[in-house]
Write a structure and sequence with these properties.
Strand order of the largest sheet: 8-7-4-5-6-9-17-15-14
CATH topology of the largest domain: D-amino Acid Aminotransferase, Chain A, domain 1
Helix content: 10-25%
Distance between the termini: 37 Å
Radius of gyration: 26 Å
Number of helices: 9
Structural class: alpha+beta
CATH class of the largest domain: Alpha Beta
Shape: globular
Low-confidence stretches: none
CATH superfamily of the largest domain: ATP-grasp fold, B domain
Mean pLDDT: 93
C-alpha cells in the first residue's frame, strides 16, 4: 500500500499488485498528498487482504484517567474511504473488546494523550480470538463516525472534550461505560454510484433530510450535516453532504430504520449515493455481519445498477404509479373552459416497469394488479414529492417525480421509470419508434467537473483498450480515464491544467 504520510479520509492511498501499479500509483499518491495536505512524502506498508477495519474510541483527561468507549466497525469502505460505520461491531466478542480496548488505552497512556481520540486497527476476520489485530494509526481528534459511539454509550464526546480541555476529571470510570443497543451511520456523499461513484458537484436545489426523533418502538433517527438547501457542492472539498444515524435495540432494527429513513431523504441537484446506501442496508451479506473492507468491490464488481426489486415491490410501485396517474387525469379534467363534457378519469391502466407490464384497475377503494387484489391506502396530490402508502401493516415511502408518459418512483435503493398509459391506449404504444442513442465511444469525455492534471497522449498516438489517457482531479481525488476501445488519437480538445466541465470532450479516437 502506498499512502500519503499526512493523508486521511482515503485520500492519497493506493494499492499496488504489480510493478505497473507502482509506477502509475506512486506519482499519483505524491500529487494527491501535496494537493490535499501540502506534503508529498509517501509511506509504503504491507497490505493485509480480507481485513476488517475496527477502531477503538478512547477518552482521557489531564489527570491520568483514560477509558475506552467500545469499538466501531468501519469495514464498509470504497477507495479506503468509510461509507458505513456501526457500533458495536458484529464481529467483536466481549473478550476481544477488552483486549483491544486495554491495548489502546495503554497506547494513549504511553504518549500522555488526553481528550477524545481514535485508535484504528486492522483485524483479521479469520481469527475469532481477537489476537490478530494490528495498529493502523491513531487519530488525535474527533472522528466523523463519533455519533454511533455517542448513541450506544450515552456519552456526548464533544462535551467531554470541552470539559477535558477545561481541566476537569472524567466523571465516570471504565466499569461505568455502557453498551446499549446498536447504532448505524451512513455517509451521504455527493457522488454518482450509477457512474462509477464519480464525484458530483452543483447546487443543492432541494435538500430535505428525514425528520429526526424517536418513534413508538424506541428507534431513533439523527442527522448531522453542514449544508442547506440552495448551497453549493464544489469540486474543491470533501464530497460528504450529511451523516444519517439510526439507533435501535438490535442491529437489524437499526438497519431497517436506515432503509426507512433513506427512503425519506430528498436531495436534488448533485448526484448522491442514497440508493447505494439503501442497497447496502438490504444486502444479505451485510445484514449477516460477514463483512470485510473488500465488501463493495466483491459484491459490486460490475458497478452499481440499483438495488434489486422483488416482484411484490414492483407490483406495489405499479399500483402507486397508476393511482398517481389517475390523480393527474382527474385534475386535468377539472380545468375550466374545456370543449365538450368532462370525462371521468380512466380506471384501468397499463404500467411498464423495465420489461414487465402490469395491468392495474382502480375502482373506488378497490385496487387490483394483474387481477390480484391489493390492500393499498394512500393520499396523493399532483405535485407531491413523497408518497407514504400503506399496504396492510407495511408502510412504503416513495419519492415521485414526473417523467414523460409516467413517473420515476424511487424506493428501497433504486429508481424505477414507469410508463403509465390508459388501458385502452396502451396497445398503440407498440407502434411508437424508440429513439436510438448516439455512439459516443470514439470520444474521451470528462465524467465530472475537474482539473485535467495529466494528458498522456497526443494527436496521432495509437492507444489500446484500458490504456490511461488522462487524469482528472476533483474533490482532491485523482481519477484515471482509460481508453474504452483501441484506435488512434484523431484530435485533442483540452490541455493539461485546464478546468473542464462535465461532458467536455477531451479527445477523439478514430
Amino acid at each position: 500500500m502506498m499512502k500519503a504520510s499526512a493523508g486521511g479520509g482515503g485520500k492519497g492511498m493506493r494499492l499496488a499488485y504489480s510493478e505497473q501499479d507502482v509506477r502509475e500509483g506512486f506519482e499519483a499518491t505524491k500529487r494527491e498528498g501535496l494537493a490535499s495536505f501540502g506534503d508529498d512524502r509517501v509511506f509504503i506498508e504491507k497490505f493485509i487482504e480480507s481485513p476488517r477495519h475496527i477502531e477503538i474510541q478512547v477518552l482521557g483527561d489531564q489527570h491520568g484517567n483514560i477509558v475506552y468507549l467500545n469499538e466501531r466497525e468501519c469495514s464498509i469502505q470504497r477507495r479506503h474511504q468509510k461509507v458505513v460505520e456501526e457500533a458495536p461491531s458484529p464481529f467483536v466478542s466481549p473478550e476481544m473488546r477488552r483486549k483491544m480496548g486495554e491495548q489502546c488505552v495503554a497506547l494513549a497512556r504511553a504518549v500522555g494523550y488526553f481528550s477524545a481520540g481514535t485508535v484504528e486497527l486492522i483485524v483479521s476476520g479469520a481469527d475469532k480470538t481477537g489476537d490478530s489485530f494490528y495498529f493502523l494509526e491513531m487519530n488525535t481528534r474527533l472522528q466523523v463516525e463519533h455519533c454511533v459511539t455517542e448513541e450506544i454509550t450515552g456519552v456526548d464526546l464533544v462535551e467531554q472534550m470541552i470539559r477535558v480541555a477545561n481541566g476537569e476529571k472524567l466523571a465516570f470510570t471504565q466499569d461505568e461505560v455502557k453498551l446499549n443497543g446498536w447504532a448505524v451511520e451512513n455517509r451521504v456523499y455527493a457522488e454518482d454510484p450509477y457512474r462509477g461513484f464519480l464525484p458530483s458537484t452543483g447546487r443543492l436545489v432541494r435538500y430535505n433530510p428525514p425528520e429526526e426523533g424517536t418513534d413508538e418502538t424506541g428507534a431513533k433517527v439523527r442527522v448531522d450535516d453542514g449544508v442547506a438547501e440552495g448551497g453549493e457542492v464544489s469540486m474543491f472539498y470533501d464530497p460528504m453532504i450529511a451523516k444519517l444515524v439510526t439507533w435501535a435495540p438490535t442491529r437489524l432494527e437499526a438497519i431497517d430504520k436506515q432503509i426507512e429513513a433513506l427512503d425519506r431523504f430528498e436531495i436534488e441537484g448533485p448526484g448522491h449515493n442514497i440508493d447505494f446506501l439503501s442497497a447496502l442496508m438490504q444486502h444479505d451479506r451485510f445484514r449477516s455481519g460477514n463483512i470485510t473492507t473488500g465488501f463493495i468491490a466483491e459484491e459490486y464488481p460490475e458497478g452499481f445498477k440499483g438495488a434489486p426489486a422483488s416482484p411484490e415491490l414492483l407490483k406495489r410501485l405499479s399500483a402507486i404509479g397508476a393511482f398517481a396517474a389517475m390523480a393527474q387525469a382527474d385534475r386535468a379534467r377539472r380545468i375550466e373552459g374545456q370543449l365538450g363534457k368532462r370525462l371521468s378519469p380512466p380506471t384501468g391502466w397499463q404500467v411498464k416497469i423495465g420489461d414487465a407490464l402490469h395491468d392495474v384497475v382502480i375502482d373506488g377503494d378497490d385496487v387490483t394488479v394483474d387481477g390480484e387484489s391489493v390492500d393499498m391506502a394512500l393520499e396523493y396530490t399532483p405535485g407531491d414529492r413523497l408518497i407514504e402508502a400503506e399496504f396492510g401493516d407495511d408502510i412504503l415511502t416513495v419519492r415521485i417525480a414526473a417523467a414523460r408518459s409516467g413517473f420515476v418512483l424511487t424506493a428501497h435503493g433504486a429508481s424505477h421509470r414507469l410508463r403509465i398509459l390508459p388501458a385502452h391506449a396502451a396497445p398503440y404504444a407498440a407502434h411508437m419508434l424508440e429513439k436510438v442513442a448516439p455512439d459516443l465511444s470514439k470520444y474521451l469525455i470528462c465524467p465530472m467537473p475537474g482539473l485535467l492534471v495529466a494528458l498522456n497522449v497526443k494527436e496521432g498516438d495509437k492507444v489500446e483498450v484500458g490504456q490511461p489517457l488522462a487524469v482528472i482531479e476533483a474533490m482532491k481525488m485523482e481519477n484515471i480515464l482509460r481508453a474504452g476501445k483501441a484506435g488512434t488519437v484523431k484530435s485533442v480538445s483540452a490541455a493539461q491544467g485546464e478546468s473542464l466541465p462535465v461532458d467536455a470532450v477531451i479527445l477523439e479516437l478514430e
